[in-house]
Each structure stands twice: as C-alpha cells, then as structure tokens.
Amino acid sequence: MSLHQLVYLSQSTRKMSKEYLLALLKQAKANNAAIDVTGSLFYNGGWFMQVLEGPEATLAALYAKITKDPRHHDTRLLYKEPAAYRTFVRWSMNMTNLEDRQADKYEQLVEVIEAAKAGRKINAISPAVTLLNLFKS
Ligand SMILES: Cc1cc2nc3c(=O)[nH]c(=O)nc-3n(C[C@H](O)[C@H](O)[C@H](O)COP(=O)(O)O)c2cc1C
C-alpha cells in the first residue's frame, strides 16, 4: 500500500510531565512497530506536533484513534500526502521535548510550532513541510 506522511498539531489537555510523555511514547512505539508506522512527536509544553508515516489506510485509522485521545484536543490536520521515502525511517516513534532548550534544532522547531498555531507559513513554506525538510537526509 502506498506510503503517506501525515502531520497534525494539537493542544495538550494539561501539561504533560516527563513521565506521562515517556508512557505515551512507549505506547506509541509498541503500537506503531506492529503496524509499520514511523514518525516523530514534538511537544513544546502546551502543543503537540506529530509526523506519522505509513500505509495510507493505516494512517487514517491511527489518526482517527489519536484524535479521540483525551490527552489532547483541538487537533488540526496540517498535511497528508504520498511520500517516496520515510523521513523517520529509524523510529517507530521519536520524541523531542522542547521544554528542554538544548533539544536538537530547538529554534527551528519552536518556530515551526508557533507558525502552525498561527496558521502562517515560514518563508512561503507550510510549517508541516518545513518540519519534514528539517529532518530530510
Ligand atoms: C499526542 C499523542 C500522540 C500519539 N501518538 C500515537 C502513535 O503514534 N501511535 C499510537 O499507537 N498511539 C498514539 N497515541 C495514543 C493513542 O491516542 C491511543 O491512546 C493508543 O494508541 C491506544 O493504544 P492501545 O490501543 O494499545 O490501548 C498518541 C496520543 C497522543 C495524545
């Protein structure tokens, strides 16, 4: 089935502690590995931005499940397109917590989430594509 990438933005219902984030990550990793999904999750203390990669129908079902999760709300689908390659090929799910200011690509990722929240582009490129471009090898 054809490979797709999906990117969404959502607001965390309450502030997620490190322990909660790790529990979420563990759950996502285990589930995604079993359904051939890869991706990355970014959290800035109030908002999530997540990239999901996998077969189109699998992503549709997973996204439907994720949007119902009470740990977040105001889910906004930013991007859903076919892809030739996976950007996060090594990760059933990776996580970057931007509360850690030392995080790799910290400045760019903060800007990507702020632009997504505001619905604006970054140098004429959508935040979702900017995010994917940041991690393209
Ligand atoms: C921000 C966020 C990202 C999530 N990402 C994933 C994910 O990548 N894969 C996944 O299976 N579940 C993810 N979840 C959890 C799902 O919403 C759901 O709780 C979980 O898949 C249920 O797992 P279970 O069917 O094993 O009980 C995420 C939840 C949140 C709040």
Automatic annotation (TrEMBL):
Residues 3-94 form the BLUF domain. One of its GO terms (molecular function) is blue light photoreceptor activity. It comes from the Bacteria. This is Blue light sensor protein. It comes from Pseudoduganella buxea.
